[in-house]
Amino acid sequence: MGALRSSEARSGPLRVFERLRRLILDGEYAPNERLIEEQLAERLGVSRTPVRQALTMLESEGLVEIAPNRGAVVCSFGVEEVGDIYDLRAVLEGHAARRAAARIEAGELARMRELAGEMEGLCDREFAGREEEIRLLVALNNEFHGIIITASRNKRLGRLVRRTVEVPLVFKAFFWYGPHERLISNHYHRQLLGALQAGDAERAGIVMREHVYEGRDFVIKALKDDQKSEAR
Q1: Given this model, what pLDDT does residue 6 score?
Q2: In a designed cystine with 54, which of 16, 25, 177, 212 is the match (CB 3.0 to 4.6 A)?
C-alpha cells in the first residue's frame, strides 16, 4: 500500500494530465474517441482517481468533453472553430515571432536549423508506417514553433498559446499534408529562420502569420473534403 501511495504521489493528477495531454495532441487518441478511465489507468500505471482528475483538467483546457452516460471524449472541431483557432494562432505566434527576433539566442537558432533540416529530410527516411512518420513530424514541428514561443521571453504568451492553439486536430492536419504542403511548410520555416537570425521583427511576424494562414486554408479545405466523404 505504501509503495502504491508513493507511486501515486509521483504520478499525481498533474503528471497524468501532462501525459494524457501529450497523447491526445500526438494523435494517440483521435477526435471523438472515448477515453475510458480503466484503460487509461492501466496504460499509465496509476489508479482511476488521478485519471479522473486529469480528465477534468483536460476538459477545462477544451481538449476533452465529459458528457453524462458517455464519459470523456476527445473534442472535435468544426470548420468555423478551426478558423477561429487559426486566427488566434496567427495573432499569438505572429507576436511571438516579432518579440523573438530581438531576443532569440544562438543556441536556439542552431536547434531550429537542426529541426528544419530533420523535417526536410523525413522524405528520405523509412518508417514502419504513416503514423510513425507523422508523430515524428508533429514532434519536430512543435519543438520548432515552441522555441519561437520560448524565445519571445513572455511566459504569459506561452500559456495563452498552450491553451488556445494546441488542439487534437493538429495530428490529423499533418496526416492530410502531402509532399507539396510539406514543401511549403518547410519553406516558411527557412524564411522564419532567416528573419529571426537577421533580427528582423517585422518580417518574422509577417512570415509567421502567412505560415499560419497557409496552414489554415489547407486544413479547412481538407476538413470540408473529409466531412463530405463521411456524409456519402
Answers
A1: 45
A2: 16
Supply 103's cell numbers: 531576443
What is the per-residue pLDDT for 76? 85
Cβ-defined contacts of 222-225 (< 8 Å, 24+): 222/173, 222/176, 223/79, 223/82, 223/169, 224/79
The three three-digit cell numbers of residue 128, written as one number? 514502419
SS3 at position 12: coil
Predicted model pTM: 0.82
Domains of the chain and any CATH numbers: 2-74 (1.10.10.10), 79-231 (1.20.120.530)
The string of pLDDT tens digits covering residues 116-139 is: 999 999 989 999 998 899 989 988
Sheet architecture: strand order including 64-67: 34-35, 71-74, 64-67
